[in-house]
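To: structure subgroup
Subject: Chain for Friday's discussion

All,

I'm putting the inputs and outputs inline so they're searchable in the archive.
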Amino acid sequence: MTREPPYLIGIAGPSGAGKSFLSEHLARELNNPAILPLDAYYPDLSHLSLDERNRLNFDDPALLDFPLLFSQVATLARGETVQQPLYDFAHHTRMSETRVVAPSEFVIVEGLFALYWPDLRTLLQTRVYVDMNDGDCLERRIARDVQQRGRTTESVTKQFRESVAPMADLYVRPTAQGADVKINGGGRIEQEVASVLAHVRGQRVR
């Protein structure tokens, strides 16, 4: 019996809106899907000084390695395994190790720009946009970056005001128009998950 290709779900939205939180809860309902975070696809910047790396705008989609990202999503869509890169956010370098991501019934592509590139959008059968106001996004970003990425509250706040929020308005929020499902990240997670699953079911019965 021929196995059906994976069903791809894209989840986009500003930093701190709740994309990863939604992905984790969706995973519980979708029998352990493969999750591909866009944050893993920043390039290796070890050729630059740490000061030069810190001055780069990581909220500009041009900084991501889109050719590798698109190639690996397309590979998963064909039902094949990929070696996802791993990224060291404290030093802005790629690790030597990779993570094996095998295709499953569902694949979740999650990150700021999941709905930004037209070529990537065409691979996604359910496109989700999660929004949140800047104040709550900043609070969540501080909590994450201080605990997980070795940042200080001051540096996170400065980056958020100077690049994260303006770039979200420029590049991320406009992608909501390409979403099949729009969610407020401050709502009940059960309702958010139900909204996504309702679209998935509707697509699969066609």
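Points worth raising on Friday:
Strands lie at 7-12, 34-37, 82-88, 93-101, 106-110, 126-131, 181-184.
Residues 43 and 127 are 25 Å apart (CA to CA).

D.
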